[in-house]
Fold this sequence. Notes:
The chain has 134 residues and is mainly beta. It has one domain (24-63, 77-132): Beta Barrel (Lipocalin). The chain contains one helix and eight strands; from the N terminus they run βββαβββββ. It has an eight-stranded antiparallel β-barrel with strand order 1-2-3-4-5-6-7-8. The longest helix has 6 residues, at 60-65. The protein is globular and about 35 Å long. The model is unreliable at 6-23 and 65-72 (pLDDT under 50).
Amino acid sequence: MAISKNPPAPPDSDRGRANRPWLQALRGKIVRFEFHEGPTRGASYDHTFREDGTVTWHDGAAKRADAAPPSDKGEPPTKYSSFQVADDVYLVSYLSKSGYTLTVALNFETEELFGFASNDENWYPVRGIFEILG
């Protein structure tokens, strides 16, 4: 079978999302990830997805314990990327300064998250829920 050197034509614009820009459902939002499975089982982390395309996060329990704004004890800002992969489902991924990559699919209909955390030595499936805080 011959392999075509020309990529397939994009779908007709009336068939869906061919000309639709990627939605940025997370940009400018604060989202709490609460993990029910994986190495951080039982923990929650508040993620701030900034307008400049970076994300910061800190322990969500620490913020609930005292009403003061989070300190700089969380991770420094790092770049993230997010794509809509289906209606109400977004994929988000970032590489933290500590060397871990978190990649999760967020289902906005069920508020569930599914994904993977990994570094150069470890790989873990993760699962939980998320909540838009602001």
